[in-house]
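Lab meeting notes turned into a lecture example. A postdoc, R.K., suggested we walk through two folding results consecutively so the class can see how the record format repeats. The first protein's sequence and structure tokens come next.
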Amino acid sequence: MSTQPLLQRTAQKRIALPVRVEPKVSFANERTFLSWLHFTVVLGGLAVGLLNFGDKVGKISAVMFSLVAMGIMLYALVTYHWRAVQIRKGSREPYDDRLGPTILCLALLGAVIVNFVLRFTEG
């Protein structure tokens, strides 16, 4: 009788298999990008309205909202391309970003607070 186990383990070799990425992942990335762009168009419309029909405080707020909208557009574009590259490579790391939206929300909150402060201290 043999003292070796019935099922023997071979050397730990990793077999490289291609990762299948569902097409819906790419479509979800594009849908998220378009959602971010929709928000920037709404914010830009608010900025244009303030610029055309506002006083001095409105024009300052319009510039701030325009800068925040352009920052969000740039973030959305960079994130979209980064995720598209990761999807094409079949990367298994997560595609989420926790820092970017937080910074963008704080920038938008700062613009709104400056708008309120300027509006209520005007006089």
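The second example is placed directly after the first for contrast:
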Amino acid sequence: MPVWGALFLLWATAEATKDCPAPCTCQALETMGLWVDCRGRGLISVPALPAHTRHLLLANNSLRSMPPGTFDHLIQLQTLDVTQNPWHCDCSLTYMRLWLEDHTPEALLDVRCASPTIATIHPLGHLTGYELGNCGWQLQAPWAYPGVWWDVAMVVVATVSLALLAGLLCTATKPLY
């Protein structure tokens, strides 16, 4: 029986690592899931990753941006190392920043930007919205909001209606009872 157990374990390990992306190496974990090591592979984009990836190492590559949704299918992902990449810190990194903030906030202090110049001063976790670019998230001036004019019109109509009613009541000569 131990031989069958060893063969089953070998088969399970091979099966778990068969979806490993070509430039990376994968190792099955004892508690299910994969350790995916893509460090130092010269990657310029994140490869297709197996859904059961638990630890992902993308350090020391040539990654500059992270498409939104890259990790959405990796529900087991616990560890993400994206340090030592020439990140272009603008709106394209918002997804990665929020993912790290939600899952491993301490990692934000290790991620550095290579560009633009204004973003190279601080780690990603300390950058302000201004340093990341405004990403088109500008609030409209209150007077430009279309709902404001509707609100103003309603106030004017209500005021005029009350004034007419008050005038009508003041000019009435006969008691209303």
